[in-house]
Amino acid sequence: MFDLPGSWVWDYWFADDGERYHLFYLYASRALQDPDARHYRASIGHAVSTDLETWTQVPDALVRSDAPAFDDLATWTGSTVRHPDGTWFMFYTGSTLAEGGKNVQRIGYATSPDLEVWTKHPGAVLEASGPWYETLADDAWHDEAFRDPWVFADPNGDGWHMYITARAPHGDPAGRGVIGHATSPNLREWTLQPPLSTPSETGFGQLEVMQVEVVDGTPVLLFSCLGDHATASRSDARGGTWAVPADSLTGPFHLDDAYSLTDETLYVGRLLQRRDDGQWLLFAFRHQDADGRFVGGVTDPMPVSWVGGRLTAAGVTVSA
């Protein structure tokens, strides 16, 4: 497990350079006392490992920019990929406050030759806009949700895709969460596309920290959503991390078919394939204890397999 004695650790993502695994994670000082205050103090830390269980903390990756900037409040969750020329790209969420104190999220990136020293690209490359995506002007949610970029190469070699936690500007506010989508030929210039899912009465207010992988030959989409951010039909499931069957890495995706992979004790489930034996593993951060209090810290790896057509993780029981 990875945790820090002086800080809360929560959302995270991985990179594999062929020799070491890199863990990038959000953290904020426990001196804040209230764990709910951590979001507006988040920086992106960095740790490395050779076995995915023992981690060594190294210098941080990114911190917020000086105001005014799209990331002058905090730097939030992202993903890391390698360009064919060897450059590493870290896509991340920049958070700032709009007039009235509501949070606005945009997507930016930084580059590195070695995963150690990162240089931010100036300004955001993507933000929410109509007609496809809800903005603060719609006044239906507590923030302008446009975050958690998951970037991957097109399976057919046609550039790059980005999936984004976003919301549609129509439908039940508790079910407006959609798979935001953007494309790029080179990782630097991005074009916003229509969402890859639709709002639903059995849906979710937000699809946090998405990831799509082909696990043992079967495509699957993962995202996270708490019960109080979903429609009434989903709220009793206490699903922390959800899995969605998919036809391919690029969909189609049917969110009505989502099922719980973890409950709310574990959040932000992510998949990583172990290099030496090809085993797919699930990680998560510890979200709640038995009394519902925030915990934090990234778990040790949990092997996953398909059981009855559903992805399951060893040792994880989904409570009702």
From TrEMBL:
InterPro entries assigned to the protein according to its UniProt record, in alphabetical order: Fructan_Metab_Enzymes, Glyco_hydro_32, Glyco_hydro_32_N, Glyco_hydro_beta-prop_sf
Limits of the Glycosyl hydrolase family 32 N-terminal domain: 19-225
GO molecular function, one term: hydrolase activity
Xref: SMART domains: Glyco_32 (SM00640)
Keyword annotations: Glycosidase, Hydrolase
Protein species of origin: Microbacterium dauci
The keyword Repressor appears for this protein: no
Name of protein: Glycoside hydrolase family 68 protein
PANTHER family listed in its UniProt record: BETA-FRUCTOFURANOSIDASE, INSOLUBLE ISOENZYME CWINV1-RELATED (PTHR31953)
Family the UniProt entry places it in: Belongs to the glycosyl hydrolase 32 family.
Highest rank taxon of the organism: Bacteria
